[in-house]
Amino acid sequence: MERQMLRAAMEQLKRKGYLQECNVEVDPKFELGAVLKHYKNEVPILFNKVKGSKMPVVGALFGERSIYYEMLATTHEERVFKLMDAIANPKPTRVLNKGPVMENIITRNIDLQKMFPIPTFHEKDSSSYITAGLVVLKDPETGQSHVSVRRLQVNKGNEISILVASPLATRQFLDMEKQNKPLEVAIVLGYDYSLLLASQISSEVYGVDKYEVDSALRGEPIELVKCHSIDVEVPAYSEIVLEGIMPPNKREIEGPFGELMGYYGAVGPHPIVEVKTVMHRNNPIFQTAFPCREEHLSNGLVREIELYSSVKGLVDVNDVNVTVAGGCRFHAFVSINKKTEGDGKSAIIGALASSKDVKHVVIVDNDVDIFDPTDIEWAIATRMQASKDLVIIPGALGSGLEPSHTVKGVTDKVGIDATKPLGELATRFEKAIIPGYENIDISKYLPGFKLK
Ligand SMILES: Cc1cc2nc3c(=O)[nH]c(=O)nc-3n(C[C@H](O)[C@H](O)[C@H](O)COP(=O)(O)O)c2cc1C
């Protein structure tokens, strides 16, 4: 029985019937990503035959909300509170002397492209990319582990370019660079739902050790081992670990890369990682993720706790959705239990204040399903008057990760209050319902027929 990380998750997914296996040969260049994309990165697929490699590749594990909840042993209703609790009450980790990831340790002739079936996803991508790599750094002062997903461009041999956009990791690298010292870094492939979710918490905002948040989330200590050549801990049950250094004063051009919103992001000089040691399990499974969508759901789940808390301070929140189509950061749909006139506008203020990245928000009543875009559209069509329900804030700080800005990072914000009025006017907005509709056994009327 596998205990933690990818194989344990895959065993569970297989038992539940969620994991599909592809036994037709696929090319890691474009073809593998095309299959993942075709299924919207929502269907976990194990590719058993990958051209040019003996190693299987697994992808699209993390793109479906309901699977995510099940694998975290939570529910849609409980998700926000489970994560809040884990952040507020991190739990200790367990460091082992040995772990399966140490079964093979390679320190010479490292050529990543030859060793691993690393996919290339889009036409103009500069190279093959490791898209599901958890980058682990250790804070020299606090000893805390910082774990986060970063895109990794495979350059040549043992060299990778790394794009680090977060303040804490950048500061750590620049501090070392000032001292002309390298920063030690491990890249982990073969993790699970809990660790990915913990990795998406901002170090800057919460200042927690993400391994400890993971331990709280999974309900048992995450089991770690020390790396072979650097002072960093990695999950004992991970599949592959690349250990290396980010040397000072060295940059390579990174990109183009088809990224978050489906565009090619900026190309520029970025730090590199020189991989010194590769550790891997026997018969390792290479983990990948189609860029733009699937793993961002985990990022959105963290943003939902921030959205919930921010709106909760002002009005009675029913539910929140940081949408996948909005890159799990630009769009927020919020349903509220409206108590007083003005709640809709207050919720707009709370939602826009939850993160600088939120750009458009829609506030609706609790009779609207915020996970159904047609229900949202219905609410906007029937409960909104632009002259009083549309709020526009020009030129606020936003995220540079979408290309519509005139100035990088500066963006207009929009709030739509699509809640119905209270009091007498509310009767005009009563939804027409069919009694017993929810409980009808529809299969008996047109046996065998399934709506597409
Ligand atoms: C699939 C995926 C890819 C990501 N790629 C990057 C990246 O290339 N660079 C980056 O700085 N952050 C990237 N992120 C975001 C970070 O992983 C995330 O913001 C994390 O919380 C940062 O943690 P930190 O605040 O401890 O640095 C990515 C997130 C996901 C889910």
TrEMBL record:
Annotated ranges, domain 3-octaprenyl-4-hydroxybenzoate carboxy-lyase-like N-terminal: 11-87
Domain 3-octaprenyl-4-hydroxybenzoate carboxy-lyase-like Rift-related: start-end pairs: 97-293
Superkingdom, natural source: Bacteria
GO CC terms: cytoplasm
Domain 3-octaprenyl-4-hydroxybenzoate carboxy-lyase-like C-terminal: start-end pairs: 299-418
Family annotation (InterPro entries): UbiD, UbiD-like_C, UbiD-like_N, UbiD_Rift_dom
Residues spanning the membrane: none
Gene Ontology molecular-function annotations: carboxy-lyase activity
Family according to the record: Belongs to the UbiD family.
Protein name: UbiD family decarboxylase
Organism: Alkaliphilus pronyensis
